[in-house]
Amino acid sequence: MRLGSRYEKLKLTLRRQSTNIRFGLGVLTGAGSVPILDIDSTAAFDRLEDQSHSRWSHIIDNGIQPGEFIGGQFFRPTLHKPFSLSETSAGYVIGSCFAQQVQFALGRRRVPLRSSILDSPTESWFLQDGKDNWPLHFFHRFNPGSLLQEFEHILSESPTIANGALIFERPDGLFSDCHYNARFTLPDFDGCMGRREFIRRRINALVDVDFVIITLGMTEAWVDAESGLYLNTTPTRELAEHLPGKFRFQVLSESDVVESLSKILEMLYRRNVHMKVVLTVSPIPLAATFTGQDVAVANANSKATLLCAANRLLRNFPQVFYFPSYEIVTYSDRAAVWERDGRHVRAEFVERIMDFFCVAAFDATLEVAPQWRAEPTPSASR
Q1: Residue 103: which of 183, 211, 261 has the closest Cα?
Q2: Which of 185, 201, 229, 370 is the most exposed place for a label (fewest CB within 10 A)?
């Protein structure tokens, strides 16, 4: 073969590889990659021109920055909602610490919530580090793998966390249930199992709710190296040293998140084909990272993965309502949004988010009560 022919063949090979890389046909992303959206040019330009929200709108021509625009006091993105809720609709809220704020705000609007456990047969079950603490903190659900395990725990006949999986004895003799929150320790294994069963029985009412709100928190996760189960929270350094080789740290991929959420949705729709699901991404950033990256970079990667996963999931489950709480917080005026720590959203801003959500999602105006009791009331069941 002449040199020229060899050169032309090499160029053709490189061109094909370049095409594969650009379009994700196997070289970098694996064979069979599918675009999230694939439409013709006419449809694309129609979408651009027909929707005012398709263009970035930060400041209008006269220089005034309206509160509802990007960068304003409260950014109001355009919503695409596939369903409406009635004022009597019962709900279940689960997810990261932002879900706690959502639950509190809905409770003040008298929305009946099945995810609220306001009593306990044993006072010590919901005391963090042995001290009084708001019990909803116990129910935070941080990574998608652990989120799936909790839905299985509630709805499945054979949950993956059966038989005491993820309950560990600490060096001080106390027991931590890492499927929930490791800091809510109990003096014995049986107590941890009793608490789990109580939660399973109480929240099994999930099958009767009209809607579920799922708040995604992060992609950093800890795994039991033996069982492959996801811990909900970080194991303490003392526990990790007490059980060497027991835990591994992972950063979940977009496909990991999509797989877990798809299983959750399939589980919910099998139980109730009319279930209304609201999906959102928590705006609360990581407090710390185990990746070795700057925490701001790690947080951006984590949220980007969750957002991409949510976007792909909506293509497979168009009946899901994506509510952009992350985007509202990110593109509103920081001074109006954040507490002094720069991590937690001001309570009054959460109220505005929930006002926006309720006006959009409910077919009736919801009155806001001045208070909503969400503390444990152990004495009520004694």
Answers
A1: 211
A2: 370
Pairing status of strand 91-95 against strand 127-128: unpaired
**For residue 210, what is the domain's CATH number?**
3.40.50.1110
Q: Give exposure, 218-237, as e/b (b: 16+ Cβ within 10 Å).
A: bbbbbbbeeeebbbbbbbbe
Mean pLDDT of the chain: 83
- For 311-369, the pLDDT digits (tens) are 999 999 999 999 999 999 999 999 999 998 888 889 889 889 988 998 888 887 777 77
Q: Do residues 91 and 210 lie in contact, with contact meaning Cβ atoms separated by under 8 Å?
A: yes
Tokens representing residue 196 in the block: 């789990």
Domain that holds residue 179: 87-364
Helices (H), the chain: 3-23, 41-50, 97-108, 144-155, 189-203, 237-242, 254-271, 295-316, 325-330, 334-337, 347-361
User: Rounded CA gap, 289 and 183, in Å?
Assistant: 19
Tally of domains within the chain: 1
Grouping H, G, I as helix, E, B as strand and the rest as coil, residue 92 is strand
The model's pTM is 0.83
pLDDT in tens, 238-263: 999 999 999 999 999 999 999 999 99
Residue written as token pair 């009054």: 348
